[in-house]
Amino acid sequence: MLTPLHYSTSELSLLEGTTLYHGAIQRREASKLSSERAKDWLVSAMTSASDDQIRLLLTWIGEIDWHSAWLWAEDGYASRSFPPQVAGWPQGDEPILIPGFDALNHRRAEPVTWSFREPALAVFTLRRAYSQGEQVYNNYGAKSNEELCSSYGFVEPDGPDDLLALALRSNADDAAGVFYWPQNQTEPPSALLVRLREHVEPTAETGRVARLLLEVQVMEMLEKMLRQRRKAFRLTQREVEDAVPFKNESDFVRESVLYVIRTYRDAQASMLNKKIQWVQAELDRLLDELEHEGWTP
Prior knowledge:
8 helices; EC 2.1.1.-; methyltransferase; SET_dom_sf; transferase; two-stranded antiparallel ribbon
């Protein structure tokens, strides 16, 4: 399995300095708790059973590596599930498995449709013609490499749907809000700018100069965020560049996982650099406008 749920210690360390690393740690911890709760419940429910098949299952549970089996099942479910609406159930229900729908590989922008048809049909519709012998694809939707890696264990080189995730807290006690800045979007998310403006000390000044000065402070905070993120990212980048596949009794790095991690990180590094360049250019523009207004530091 190639998702971060199944990374070795060394493989996981190669994600340090990225948002995918923190997401992987949280998911692994949650999976461990779910695994333990499920096993405890199952053993408790079957202990008093008299059926021979159930006793055999109970013995089997005690013999296998339960946590590894749970991770395998969880990954299989998460990577092959579909929205409940495809089966006619409410959007808030749990994702579902549909035999057959999950048999196809993913290709971005492949024209397919998932739909529900009364009374009880999940319909997969191909929106283009295929030649004899040509592979038929599914389309998982517009997903960043971070999501593709986390959910499916692969990435798309130069993925057009890639994005940079930025976390910002209103204060130390609040959960961080996460804002997504797509690589093909020049300006930062408007919601992030709104949140940053809330961090600027209010002033009694009004007028164009005051508004420009506010935006300068916002851009300076954004630049600081991005530079701190890049600094943390670079702390482990050399380790990733120097890494080689290996395997010993207690640890390993697989070549396929190393490729996925490098592809993901290369795109993240490129986006960080481009976003910082944009902020610097925006600061220059704002300062030029302030100078035109006659403002001096």
